Amino acid sequence: MLFNSYSFIFFYLPVVLIGFFQLARVHHAFAAGWLALASLFFYGYWNPAYIGLLLGSIVCNYAFGMWIAKSRTEDRGLRIENPEARSVERGSGKRHLLIVAITANLLLLSYYKYADFFISNVDLLAGTHWNIGEIMLPLGISFFTFTQIAFLVDTYQGKVKEYNFIHYVLFVTYFPHLIAGPILHHKEMMPQFARASSYRLNWEHVANGLMLFTLGLCKKTLGADALAPYANAVFNGVQSGMLPTAYEAWAGALAYTLQLYFDFSGYTDMALGIALLFNIKLPVNFDSPYKATSIIDFWRRWHMTLSRFLRDYLYIPLGGNRKGKMRRYVNLMATMLLGGLWHGAGWTFVVWGALHGAYLTINHLWREMIAERFLKQVPGWLGALAGGMLTFTAVVAAWVVFRSNDIVQAKIMLEAMFGINARPIALDAVLHGQLLLTTDLSGRDLIKLLFYSLAWVWLLPNSARLRFIKGNFILALAQAVVVVCLLALAIDQFGSYSPFLYFRF
Fold this sequence. Notes:
Elements: H1 6-26, H2 28-44, H3 51-81, H4 86-89, H5 92-126, H6 141-156, H7 165-173, H8 175-178, H9 186-194, H10 203-239, H11 246-277, H12 295-301, H13 304-315, H14 325-343, H15 347-374, H16 380-403, H17 407-417, H18 427-432, H19 443-459, H20 473-492
Helix pairs in contact: 1-2, 2-7, 3-5, 3-6, 3-7, 5-6, 7-9, 10-11, 10-19, 10-20, 11-16, 11-17, 11-19, 13-14, 14-15, 15-16, 16-17
């Protein structure tokens, strides 16, 4: 089921919301159970066959979490009774359980997401012809797997304080975040499910949640879906063997750059808004990333919960920056390579991760060797402007690799963008239609769309920080009218099936 569908907006969401607060009057456990069941229905609406997979993952990880917590308690008791055994026995049982549990999660994820990729590459190298049949990727498997790995590690570290099974099921399956994030921490969600105030209707949360949902829906229908035909026209044209002009290559790259942002950021805004209707606050996942003035800054703003996960559960355990500068850069590269592979089973994702690993390494070296020594007198606004332009260009170039079907397609696009090998520009044909000679899309319309889209991402405030104005009825009413009009406009754009891009990742 999609957030941008009539069935979700006019049937599913109202029924689940009303049922939740009505059952909360009887008992909070009934309301939590209702929301967990509704979330399972939401997931199974796409393919009921994978509900069993999701439930099996939940039960196994919950059991592992209980065993790790119990082992932690036993280890603590052993250290109290026999302090001399501390160096030998400390954490050995729970550490082994954690390794087994994480391995089981990664094996499940690897089978569904990477088995075809691995076997196809083995076949290519060895000349074999293995065939394991078609494996359909379950929706959201990367997200609910990473969410539960974070739970296991937090349990191992003693950060988990509550083990209510219904709340745990709800923590994993909570439908606003289940399909495409954000990636949650157990400690930031479980206290919210346990609070009595979460089960009482809060009209301020309803108003702000509906506004955030509406803005996200506008990003999806008015932004991402409008840009998609242009991005597809260019990339599909290149895939079919056509050579783009520099204009067409940049137009396609920018269209996809903005499509991806509006699509994923829009989904996240809708997820945050829906969760707020139920008095649950999900972590912010985007902080105007295309305003970043460096790659380091970009990764503090883009898909923030994934960045947090990679930092806390991969980069820091690898040693972070604690073992010297060279080891720091190796750790950065390894983290970004695996982060790229997390997005999908393909060499383009690996190269995309490697690019960002190289970007981050260069950024750190620049700060240490150049900026801090020789550029202290440069005006801050000038450094921010130059850094912002360079960062955005680097991000766009990397998105080209991310979007391409293979490395060859990415190479053709990048060579055309930077004038190495491009078809001569026929400006009249570009402006009046026949973008890449495969469609009748107007280049003039695309220029307008790119202008409005860039103005949105560069000039408007972060949507997750917007709130209804309190204390002024006239301004609040005006906001409400604007939100209703935007919601009607966004719904009016519903057309063909339009899933979110990150459903695939």
